[in-house]
Each structure stands twice: as C-alpha cells, then as structure tokens.
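Quick one, T. Sequence first:
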Amino acid sequence: MAEITHRFVESTSGLRMHIAEAGSGPLVLLLHGFPECWYSWRHQLTALADAGYHAVAPDQRGYARTGGPAEADQYTIHHLVGDAIGLIDALGREQAVVVGHDWGAPVAWGAAQFRPDRVRGVACLSVPHRPRSSRPPVQAMRELYGDDFYMVYFQEPIVPEAEFDRDRAETFRRMLYAASGDLGVLPSVPEGGGMLSDVAPGELSGWLTEDDIAVFVREYEDAGFTGPLNWYRNLDRNWELTAAWHRAPITPPALFIGGDRDPVLTGGGRAAADRLADFVPNLRGTVWLPGCGHWTQQERPAEVNKALLDFLGGL
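Structure tokens:
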C-alpha cells in the first residue's frame, strides 16, 4: 500500500495549503466537504496511488492545518476555485482530474465550469451540480425550509461555531452519525436549541471509529470552525458573483456518485441528480450506492474507489 505523506504548498491563489498526497502519475485532486479535512480521503489516497495516480487531498481554505483569512468575504466560490486551480499550478501540472465531496463538489463543479482547460475530468460525490437559481438562495431556503434549516442557522455569526467548539469530539460524532446511512437525517435547529441537540448518536458503525473521531478533533485543533462556516456565509455573494455563468454547461467528462440514504439527496437533491445531464453534457455515468448515507467515500470506500478508477481509466 502506498504511503501518505504531508507537506505545505503555496497555491498561486496566495494561500499556503496543507496537502496529503500519495503516489505518482496523473494528478487527481480530492476536495473534502464540511465538517471534514484531508482525512476524509484516507481510503482513496492509497487506492489511487496504488493504481498509478498522484492523489492529492488538501485541507481547503479555512480548514484544519491550512487555515485561512479571518474575513468572511474571503471565502467566495472564486477564492475556493482559485485555490484549487492554483494548487494544480503549484504542483507543476497543466491539468488534473478534480474530485469533490459535499462542499468540495461545488468547488469541483466550479473548477470544471470556470476553467475547463485545466480540468481533465470531474467526479462529484453527494452533491450534484445545481444551475444558478433565479434569486439569492438564503431567503429562498428560509421560505422553503424555515429558520431552523441548518444553512440558514449558519448565517449567524459566532453562534454555530460556539456550539460546535463546545465539545468537538461530540460534534463530529453527532454530525457524522446523523447524515450517515445509519440515520440519514439533516439536523434542524429547534427554537432555543442547537443544531446537534436533537441528535443522539448510536453506536459507531464499522466505517467510523473512535480513532477516526480523534483524528478529526486533532486536525481542527488550531483552525476551528469559523473558516468552514464562512463558506456558507457566502451563499448569496456566490450567487451575485456567478451571474456570468448563469446556466452555463459543465463540459469536461463527469461522474456522479450518491448514496440512496443521503439526506442531502432527498427531494430536490435527487431531482437535481436525475437531471444532471441537462447541464453536464459529458456525464459518463451516475453510481448509486444502496444503504449509503452522506459520507460516501468513507462509508463505502471500496465501491467509491472502483467507480473512480473506472472513470479515470476511461479518460
């Protein structure tokens, strides 16, 4: 099995980024989501390296060992895509296959949409591409789901990170359990409570151990949750900044992987996945994982690795 090594790289975006990497060969960039870090790709780093690829998983802007600016407006989709494209530059490559999960998926989709010349292929897990909406998203979510919807709750300054920082081990345990295939729910925020107050985690499944929880806690020791939450605080700003790409297609070869118990893919999420080819004309396939929740590549590493390697082999 290939060894995972760590170093810091200066993205041409200007951000000094921590990366975990393994192997050599064509570059595959692995972009994590919330509340995660490079460690979410531990199973893919070694599998891709053993198959002849240079697999690189950064801690993205604001996260873990990378950290980031204090100002919330420094976390727009242009900053995030700029970090990813700048990392390809810093690694001395002209192109990469970009793979994203959860929040990493919009960054991967964005990289493929904004800079198709730099993206040889794009594979996204759990979050399908959604065309730019006709109006800013936060008010739309508030009207559709109410003030207790977690993305609306995340707009508040200080309050969400104070909740998550209170007991980080319990935060990761509850959040990872809630959206997994074991429970399959997105926590809401009851009046007078916190996002995690109604989530009582059961026993950890085989895909997640107490040692894994300890790694996430350790990786968040310095940067905390403010940077990651700032991604959500730019939803309306991202809508404003992407007017030039309104309903623009994503042209590189693409793959989508989802779990059929992923709460992000219920309702409108599943509909967006089913209509993906309307805006991703070179969609090579959609892979559904029965019984899998939101933490796709951690819950079902073997199936995800096979899907990724099949996709990579066809490029």
